[in-house]
Structures are given as C-alpha cells and as structure tokens.
Design brief:
alpha/beta, UDP N-Acetylglucosamine Acyltransferase, domain 1, 26% strand
C-alpha cells in the first residue's frame, strides 16, 4: 500500500471528514489532559462541538475519542480516566447515567464495513475498569447491567477452517452480542460472538460464555454452563451485612 493510500485508510477509520478530524484532535490536544473539575467542565462544554451529548457529560482526563461524530452520550454519563472510545457510522451510544470506568476500551473499528457494527449501552449501566467491548458484529447492552473489571465482550470471530491459509486471511464472522437488562457480568468474564445473555442472568467471574444464557440463570466456568435458575431455585439470603443506598446520588 502506498503511503498516501495508508494515510487515507487511517483517516477513514478515525473520522468521517478531515475538518471533523482536525477539530476533534485539536480539542483533545488542548483540553484532554487537564485534570479535575476544571478539565471535566471544559470537556463537557467543548466536546459537544464534535460529539452528540444530552446535557453536559463528565469526561475525565486522558480519554481518547475517535470518530467522535458517531459517539452519542446520554444525560449524566460519566467517562473515567484513560477510556478509549472508537465510534462507527452506526454509532457508539451510551445511555443516561451510565458509567464507563478507567482504562476501558469501547472499540468498533469497522474497517470491513459490516452493516450491523456498533455498540449500544442502555441506562444506568456500569462498565467496570479495564473492560474491552469490540463491536464489529454489533453489541447491545441493556439497562442496569453491572460489569465487573476486565470483562471482554467480543462480537467478532475468526474463521480457521483452511489449515493451508493463515487465519488472518480467512475472514471473520460477526453475529453480534446482546446482554439484556439487569445482568451481572463477573470480573474477568469473556462473552463471545453470537451470545445472548438473558435478562437478570449472572455470569461468574472468569467464565467464558460461548453459548446463550437464559434469563435469570447463573452460569459459571470455562466454557460457561448454567448451574442454577435464580427464579425457581433462588440463592439463600446472605448471612452477612448487606448495604444499600447511595445510588440515587449518581
């Protein structure tokens, strides 16, 4: 690939137009590093020139955003330190009062032009530290979903049927992933392409989910398997103190 073609490819993956790219990069260079309340305030106002936000989002320092014109933030969204957001023409939507915690990477990078690519996160959902969400096949996450740290949601898979060819040259499949309302995805869990996690289901820490999980099921292991129906066989009440409150302040 010639250098000029390489540059065109780079820009196509980062922006929909050169003026948008220049404005977005200039703003991020100017105020993206400023810490504390001052930086959050400046970014909340100025970044609305390049992304779509309902109200003033709270964006911490050293957050990197590519294709900002395809990023949509609801009211009261919080983006923590060092988060990486990479949109796509189909959009990267984060719903009202949702949190994306430090070091997470929400990445579409749809250079193959898949029509369903994108990431859509509902309201009051918490994305734990270091989580990776790859949205080539399309990722839909519902309301009030809780992610532990370092979860991986990977809506893409590589074909490796032909041993005579490098896997990189055999293409991909991308069915998409859906995580319905009220789920808890435990720390370090991996959700693979084609999976639906039903409403209110719990995925154990470190599990690898290769098949869909029914609503209100508890699934654990590698590969994950359902070990309990939380409706018909609920867990016993904890024998330790349970703490409530505080969430309404967010």
């Amino acid at each position: 690939m010639r250098p000029l073609d390489t540059l065109r490819f780079y820009l196509r993956t980062k922006t929909s137009s050169l003026p948008r790219y220049v404005l977005s990069e200039t703003l991020q260079a100017a105020v993206g590093w400023i810490p504390g309340v001052v930086g959050i305030g400046l970014r909340g106002i100025l970044y609305k020139l390049v992304l779509r936000a309902d109200g003033i989002p709270a964006i911490e320092d050293h957050v990197r955003i590519h294709r900002a014109e395809d990023v949509v933030l609801g009211r009261g969204v919080y983006i923590d330190h060092g988060v990486y957001l990479h949109g796509a023409p189909q959009g990267l939507h984060i719903g009202d009062h949702s949190w994306v915690m430090a070091g997470s990477r929400l990445h579409v990078f749809n250079f193959r032009g898949l029509p369903q690519a994108g990431i859509r996160i509902g309201r009051r959902t918490f994305i734990g530290e270091g989580t990776i969400i790859r949205g080539q096949g399309g990722v839909v996450i519902g309301d009030c979903v809780l992610f532990g740290p370092r979860v991986m949601v990977l809506a893409v898979n590589h074909v490796f049927a032909d041993p005579a060819r490098p896997i990189m040259q055999q293409g991909i499949t991308a069915k998409g992933i859906c995580i319905e309302d009220g789920c808890w995805i435990g720390a370090g869990a991996t959700i693979l392409d084609g999976v639906t996690v039903g409403q209110g289901a719990c995925i154990g820490a470190g599990s690898v989910v290769t098949h869909s999980v029914p609503a209100h099921a508890l699934a654990v292991g590698v590969p994950a398997r359902v070990i309990r129906d939380l409706l018909t066989d609920p867990l016993p009440a904890p024998d330790v103190q349970v703490y409530f409150g505080g969430l309404e302040q967010f």
